[in-house]
């Protein structure tokens, strides 16, 4: 009986690693392009060139433009969720100000810029809309869950779920304001105010 030789196995593993690395480069390049150039300026060819791979290699991993950009925003959203959880490995009940600041930071980086361009595109692109809607719903649920955990919020109490959701809506609004101007000073004051309000309402 024939089997897979040691040489074949040795060749396959690096090939799988290279494929994974290529996919990651494409995803990161797609997010950067989307944040910088918007949907209209972000084609598969532009992303492939930025990632340093051929257009054919890009299409091997992501057959359509929608596949590429939906996967890219999802990838970085998951990375940001992981980073947020890792900021407070032992919980953060004692420092709600730090939690509010970290949540606001989620909405002021390149991921939010890229996601915003994707939302605008989805409002006009029928193919894209259901995929982006589903993705945003999933990312939103995950962010809400992380926020509840980090704030030690008891959602069985009246108004607590709405308070946490209001915090996330506020953070998104600050992210929008930051797209046009560096709003850091005002953002710090708003973060301090919200941290105080949460201490009062969450106990």
From TrEMBL:
Every HTH tetR-type domain range: 20-80
GO molecular function, one term: DNA-binding transcription factor activity
Region (Disordered): 1-21
Start-end of DNA-binding region: 43-62
Organism: Streptomyces tuirus
InterPro entries (UniProt xref): Homeodomain-like_sf, HTH-type_TetR-like_transc_reg, HTH_TetR
Keywords: DNA-binding
Domain of life: Bacteria
Compositionally biased region (Basic and acidic residues): 8-20
Entry protein name: TetR family transcriptional regulator
Keyword Transport annotated: no
